[in-house]
Amino acid sequence: MAESPEPSEPTEDEVFDVLSSRRRRYALHMLKGRDEAVELGDVAEQVAAWEYGEDVADVSYDERKRVYTALQQSHLPKMDDAGVVSFDKNRGVVEPTPAIDDVRVYMDVVKGREIPWSEYYLGLSAVAATLLGAVALDAWPFAMLPDLAWGVAAVAAFAVSAVVHRYYARQTALGRGPAPAELDNA
Length: 186
Description:
Layout: H1 12-19, H2 22-31, E1 38-39, H3 40-52, H4 61-82, E2 85-88, E3 93-96, H5 100-103, H6 117-136, H7 147-171
Antiparallel strand pairs: 1-3, 2-3
Helix pairs in contact: 2-3, 3-4, 6-7
């Protein structure tokens, strides 16, 4: 008897398609980090609570039913096809696959008036280059400290930025915290 092939990782297009729906992002957030299958009703109830800005206990039957139906008929099959979750429609359970970790890479949450980290690092590089140019030209007040001190300051700025970036990324990661990070914008 031939073994079934290992599931392939989702393509970038499949990941973007999965992430294009807020409802699917909420479902992924709930499933991230779980090792066991979750009842579709539990997923629908939590997603509905996030969507309607309510506690799970306050979700009405109609709100839950709308989310349940959409998840069952559209969202979870699409996520299953992409290989991000395993959805058993007959049993009414959904389970994250190892590929759910690949989705995290695409979840750089930028809130409100924040700038993306890539633009921040570009600006920091420009400031560091300007600083080092001024030090090389012995411009005032840069000539007052040794060149090594300014080099250490530039490296320290990047090191502190990297630590803050890492902390921020962990706090807004998919499946981290009680609610999806994008709810902070709501």
